[in-house]
Amino acid sequence: MTLEAIRYHNGTLEILDQLLLPLETKYIPILGVEDGWKAINKMQVRGAPAIAIVGCLSLAVEISKEEFEKKKTLRREVEGKLNYLISARPTAVNLKIAADELMNLVNALDRDDSVSATEMQARFISEIERMLEKDIADNKAIGEAGCNLILNSLLSTNGGEISVRVLTHCNTGSLATASYGTALGVIRALHSSRRLEHVYCTETRPYNQGARLTAFELVHDKIPATLICDSAVSALMKSKSIAAVIVGADRVAGNGDTANKIGTYQIAVTARYHSIPFYVAAPFTSIDFSIVNGENIQIEERPDREMTHIGKYRIAAPGINCWNPAFDVTPAELITAIITEKGVFKPSELRTMEPS
Ligand code: MRU
Fold it and tell me: Which of 12, 107, 185, 285 maximizes the CB count within 10 A of its CB?
């Protein structure tokens, strides 16, 4: 059985409710943009690529139920609803970039007199449907590029047969994407090529994406894995000969500074101290060339309750103040390379590149 976070077929959308995992596997219907916004905001679906896909598909579902006499009406509705969807969670850039691309398409179709309103509607919907396929293909390419990178860099120092132990943080797998995953895609590729000795995944407090979701995927795929507390990272690096850290990204700035799940930054600092390569694996659409550095990335702060409770159980002393940023920014200088479907780049190389 393949793990599917997103099920879409002919205008019908369902998502796996990730708030219930790993105890319950339940799909919930997304009937339109309002449902999409809520599911993203409440984190029933999460992970930068999955947020973008579910956001856009929720709009496709809504638009497919309507009839448009005028192209202008369709264009206005698409623009307003995409802006609304982007507001559900601010840090990941993938939905914003997908929305910009969709608006370019809609504007071009609006200007083209040979295109009717009905045709514009159909082309808009099929462009969104294409995103699912593209994301899977991109993730496979990221997986292969990351696997080759890690193995080649070790072959040059070790030579001969190698198998590696790696560390990952948060959830970047099938549950965070259309399928396969980014950082977890690299780990899947290492495993398929029989080069993965072991993967360690952090719990990823406070929402526990590692313990609940990554561990779920690793057990599901029978990949040799061990869960560690977030606070065990330095001890792990000191004692277990970790070949690489591989994480995902919510937004990479033009200089390579990378926003990812809270805790990523301290793992990168620790990796540098232990001379362990630190890789970011992400689709090219996670790179936001419009911002110069990480200081311009808006960091989402989540409700205290995610820290004070696990499910319905309170675990923190009543009355305590909380600070709950969902992401942090790892400075480019701590990142060995950024692995994308378009190639592997040193952070400094991004400065010379153009968005495509
Ligand atoms: O708050 P989340 O669970 O949406 O955060 C997810 C992450 O930080 C992931 O590492 C990132 O989105 C990449 S997912 C392929």
Answer: 185
| Mutate-to-test residue for ligand 1 from 16, 96, 170, highest number of ligand atoms within 8 A of CB | 170
Q: What is the pLDDT of residues 270-327, one digit of tens each?
A: 999 999 999 999 999 999 999 999 999 999 999 999 999 998 999 999 999 999 999 9
Specify whether the CB–CB gap between 170 and 124 falls below 8 A: no
ipTM above 0.90, yes or no: yes
CA of 256 to the centre of ligand 1 (A): 17
39 Cβ contact partners less than 8 Å away, ≥ 6 residues apart: 15, 28, 30, 45, 54, 58
Assign 3-class secondary structure to 269-311. Answer: HHHHHCCCCEEEECCHHHEECCCCCHHHCCCCECCCHHHHEEC
Q: How far is CA 288 from CA 232, 325, 353, in A?
A: 32, 20, 11
Per-residue pLDDT reduced to its tens digit, 82-135: 999 999 999 999 999 999 999 999 999 999 999 999 999 999 999 999 999 999
Pocket lining: 170 vs ligand 1, CB cutoff 6 Å: yes
Q: Which residues contact 71 (CB under 8 A, 6 or more apart)?
A: 109, 110, 115, 116, 117, 120
